[in-house]
C-alpha cells in the first residue's frame, strides 16, 4: 500500500454529512489512515454536478473533531476543506459512497463525481464511489460496498495514475452475485430511459419530477453499464481534458484563419 497517498484522507459526498454511505466510506478510510477529515454537504446535493456557490454565502458547521457540514455543494465542500478547514492538504480524496450508481452520462450530473473532479483539479488523487440500489431490496443496500470497498481502495492506491485522471468506482447491488472487477469506459444510455412525471399541487399548479428508468437494454461490452448489468464492480479512469483531439484537425482545417495575414 502507498503509505504517502493514504496519509491524510478527505472524505466528502453529495448525499449529505449523515448518510450511511458516508459512514461506510469513513470506516474504510480509518482502516488505512490515522488522519481522516470529513467535509460533506449539510443537505443532499444529488444531481448538482460541479456547481460552485458564487452568489450566496457558504456556511460551515462543525459536527465533531475533523468532521464538518457545509451549506453548499460537493464542490464547495472540497474548496472549503482545502482552503479553509484543513491545516494541511489531503493526500487522498474519497467521495461517496453514493446511494445509487453513477454510470454513463450520470457523470455530467453527479455531485459525487464532481467532488472527485475538484480534488483532481487541485492535484489530489481522488476516487468516487457509488452503490447500485433498488427500491424493493430488503437487505443491506451497501453490503457489496462493505465487502469490497476496503480491498479495492487498498489496491487502487498502489497504482499510479496521471495527475489529470480520477477514478469512478461503481458496485453492483447483489453481494452474492459479484463476479469480479472490470476496468471500463463510459457507457451511454438510450434517451428513452429519461422520464418526466407531471403532477399537480393542492392549488392546481403543475410540477414535474425528472428521473431515469433502469433499462440498460444491451449495453456495449466494456462499458460501465455492461459491467454493473453483468455483476461486476466497475472502475473507470476519467480525465479532466474534455477536448476531442480528433476534431481539432477536422474543424481547424475549415475555420482556422490568421486575420493578420489578410
Name of the CATH homologous superfamily = Survival protein SurE-like phosphatase/nucleotidase
Largest sheet: 9 strands, mixed
User: Strands across the major sheet, in which order?
Assistant: 3-4-2-1-5-6-7-11-8
From the 3D structure, determine the CATH topology: Stationary-phase Survival Protein Sure Homolog, Chain: A
The total domain count is 1
Count all strands and give the number: 11
Low-confidence blocks of residues: none
Mean pLDDT over the full residue set: 91
In the CATH hierarchy, the architecture is 3-Layer(aba) Sandwich
CATH class: Alpha Beta
Counted by DSSP, the helix tally is 7
How do the helices and strands follow one another from N- to C-terminus?
EHEEEHEHHEHEEEEHEH
Shape: globular
Oligomer: single chain
Features:
single chain, 262 residues, alpha/beta, Stationary-phase Survival Protein Sure Homolog, Chain: A, 9-stranded mixed β-sheet, two-stranded antiparallel ribbon, 11 strands
Structure in words:
This protein is an alpha/beta fold and 262 residues long. It has a single domain, classed as 3-Layer(aba) Sandwich (Stationary-phase Survival Protein Sure Homolog, Chain: A). The chain is built from 7 helices and 11 strands. Helix 1 runs parallel beside helix 5 and helix 2 packs parallel to helix 4. The model has no long low-confidence stretch (mean pLDDT 91).
Amino acid at each position: 500500500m502507498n503509505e504517502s497517498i493514504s496519509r491524510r484522507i478527505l472524505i466528502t459526498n453529495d448525499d449529505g454529512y449523515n448518510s450511511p454511505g458516508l459512514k461506510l466510506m469513513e470506516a474504510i478510510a480509518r482502516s488505512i489512515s490515522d488522519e481522516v477529515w470529513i467535509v460533506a454537504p449539510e443537505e443532499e446535493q444529488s444531481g448538482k454536478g460541479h456547481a460552485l456557490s458564487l452568489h450566496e454565502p457558504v456556511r460551515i458547521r462543525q459536527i465533531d473533531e475533523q468532521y464538518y457540514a457545509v451549506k453548499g455543494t460537493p464542490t464547495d465542500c472540497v474548496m472549503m476543506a482545502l482552503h479553509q478547514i484543513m491545516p494541511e492538504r489531503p493526500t487522498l480524496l474519497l467521495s461517496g459512497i453514493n446511494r445509487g450508481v453513477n454510470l454513463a452520462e450520470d457523470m455530467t450530473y453527479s455531485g459525487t463525481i464532481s467532488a472527485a473532479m475538484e480534488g483532481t483539479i487541485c492535484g489530489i488523487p481522488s476516487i468516487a464511489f457509488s452503490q447500485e440500489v433498488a427500491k424493493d431490496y430488503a437487505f443491506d443496500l451497501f453490503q457489496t460496498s462493505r465487502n469490497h470497498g476496503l480491498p479495492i481502495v487498498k489496491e487502487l492506491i498502489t497504482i499510479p495514475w496521471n495527475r489529470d485522471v480520477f477514478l469512478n468506482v461503481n458496485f453492483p447491488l447483489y453481494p452474492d452475485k459479484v463476479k469480479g472487477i472490470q476496468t471500463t469506459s463510459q457507457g451511454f444510455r438510450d434517451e428513452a430511459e429519461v422520464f418526466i412525471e407531471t403532477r399537480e399541487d393542492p392549488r392546481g399548479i403543475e410540477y414535474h419530477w425528472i428521473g431515469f428508468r433502469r433499462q440498460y437494454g444491451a449495453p456495449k461490452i466494456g462499458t460501465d453499464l455492461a459491467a454493473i448489468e453483468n455483476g461486476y464492480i466497475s472502475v473507470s479512469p476519467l480525465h479532466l481534458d474534455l477536448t476531442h483531439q480528433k476534431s481539432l484537425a477536422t474543424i481547424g482545417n475549415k475555420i482556422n484563419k490568421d486575420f493578420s495575414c489578410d
